[in-house]
Amino acid sequence: MTQPLSTPRDSIRIVLFERIHDNALERFAAAGYSNVETIGHTPDAAELAERIADAHIVGIRSRTHLTPDILAAARRLIGVGCFCIGTNQVAVGDAKGRGIPVFNAPYSNTRSVAELVLSEMILLYRRIPEKSKAAHAGGWLKTAAGAYEIRGKVLGIVGYGHIGSQLSVLAEALGMRVCYYDITEKLSLGNAIGHLEKL
Questions:
Q1: With 133 labelled, which of 12, 111, 190, 197 sits at a CA distance of 20 to 30 A?
Q2: pTM for this structure?
Q3: Where, residue-wise, is CATH 3.40.50.720 in the chain?
Q4: Between 110-125 and 128-136, two packed helices, what is the crossing angle to 10 degrees?
């Protein structure tokens, strides 16, 4: 009789915090992991230590902090998944010392942030915040004076990484001219220009 090489998947305990999307549950289920607990809030340190004491895998977002003390309380932890772009909320050195890999999702919010930046640019160019404030106070600023289209404007981006390059693509699609600066050589997407002096 041969011994199983690893713990059966249905006995691996997974705890997900901060309302992680249902897609994660579906993927775990499809892979045979059925022992998944979801926590819809950010627990305090005492609750967090209690909930992950016997967890094998923990999934967090940016508000849940895995400090050295919390990691010490996690007796069976074999992996931490950060459902966000960074891992600064985890004591990575302590995790490494315990042999616990820490993963993140560097592209998870890229498009959302790029869209938010673009929408805020449009709001400011159209003077929406002051018009909204006036409307809520019972006024109506019908004039378009001082409000502009973003089409034809030049957008300068400092940092042409995941978010900056996606913002570049969206802005160009709306008719903006894009130039960027980055400390490393980057391949331009679309018609973006990599040096300000070329404008």
A1: 111
A2: 0.69
A3: 9-104, 110-198
A4: 70
**Residue pLDDT tens, the chain, 199 long:** 566 667 788 889 999 999 888 888 899 999 999 999 999 999 999 999 999 999 999 999 989 999 999 999 999 999 999 988 889 999 999 999 999 999 998 887 889 999 999 999 999 999 999 999 999 999 988 888 889 999 999 999 999 998 999 999 999 999 999 999 999 888 899 999 997 545 4
Looking at domain 9-104, its CATH superfamily turns out to be NAD(P)-binding Rossmann-like Domain (3.40.50.720)
- Architecture per CATH, 110-198: 3-Layer(aba) Sandwich (3.40)
Closest listed residue to residue 36, CA positions, set 49, 21, 47:
21
